[in-house]
Amino acid sequence: MSSLASNRSSLWFLAITLLSFLAASTAPTPLYHLYQQQLQFSATVLTLIFAVYALSLLAALLTVGSLSDHLGRKPVIFTAILLNGAAMLLFIYATSVEWLISARVLQGFATGMATAVLSATLLDTDRQHGPLINSVAPLLGMALGGMGCGLLAEFAPAPLQLTYWLLLALFVLQGVYVWRLPESVTPQVGAWASLRPTLHVPMQARSILWRVLPLNTATWALGGFYASLAPSLVRTATGSTSNLIGGATVAVLTVTGAMMIFTLRQRPAAQALRSGASLLPIGVILILLGVHSASLPLFFLGTLVAGCGFGSGFLGAVRSLVPLALPHERAGLMAAYYVLSYLAFCLPAMLAGHFSRLYGLVLTTDGYGAVLIVLAVAALLLSLRAAPAKVCSAP
């Protein structure tokens, strides 16, 4: 019974820690326009601040993504927490664009390290609930970070510092508690070699990874757009100046995604993929109609539908992949998955930021939405032809 209680407490800790890292990642989203007003930087610099986070996260996944397979889970989790705590301090005392960029670089690296190791540790701890938590916690974390920071910015003092102080306190507590976790893997040789930038995808998972790639790219590209340009899009289309808009756009997308994941948690991965590929394009069409009619309710209705597709696609991809890796392959597979996901998260949004300066944000959004619709339809066709994958048995 004590072993069961210990396993449950570990599961809760890992879920909350993963949630808190993703909450910290979206906390700056509602604050971007305040930073612009205070530090007087352009939309180009705003796109750079968004991009360096994702690129740094990718660097972490490519280098230290599978490090915990060699050193053990606990020291890598602790290091990620320590780095993210330092990033919170940089945000708190940021007085220039350079400080903001430094904070986002450090935060991106910490989040990339944490995402891979926490995802693998969740699977080590509970094979039944681990995949569900890996799917739900990041989305809820992004929602809490965006909406929570938006609320604090609107109604609490020190909008550019308070959120980060609260997150810093949470990371300190997590850094202390992590050493109480049981170690779930036996350290192996090859830690230095594992730092060489490679993607560790098990042979048996490669075909499935390519098969889920179109929908996974569409879902993460939508998430990147919402984390960077959607608040500006809403302000452009509706004229709203509320601090809550930035957080609300992210929160609506990710909360509905998390709810969809929970709803489909017992359904086959193939069904989740088909649901995502069907709902995502409908949602994008409604979003575009909301933009062109300057209708905030229609925009958020489209976000709700797209969020359902977002969650379904995310769940389908994770549940298709995680059974295909042996224990010592899990961190590497999750790192590879998140590398592809965060490339989809940042690169399309960066291109959209560039094209918005040339053609305007609304026209750029039309093109962006059209690409997402094409990817989702292609994914739907692929899912209808998909064959069952062979599952690896864990010892």
TrEMBL record:
The keyword Membrane applies. It is a multi-pass membrane protein. InterPro entries: MFS, MFS_dom, MFS_trans_sf, MFS_Transporters. It is found in: Cell membrane. Its main location: membrane. Residues 9-395 form the Major facilitator superfamily (MFS) profile domain. It comes from the Bacteria. It holds the Pfam family MFS_1. Keywords: Cell membrane, Membrane, Transmembrane, Transmembrane helix, Transport. The chain crosses the membrane at residues 42-64, 76-95, 101-123, 135-156, 162-179, 208-229, 244-264, 276-294, 300-322, 334-355, 367-387. This is MFS transporter.
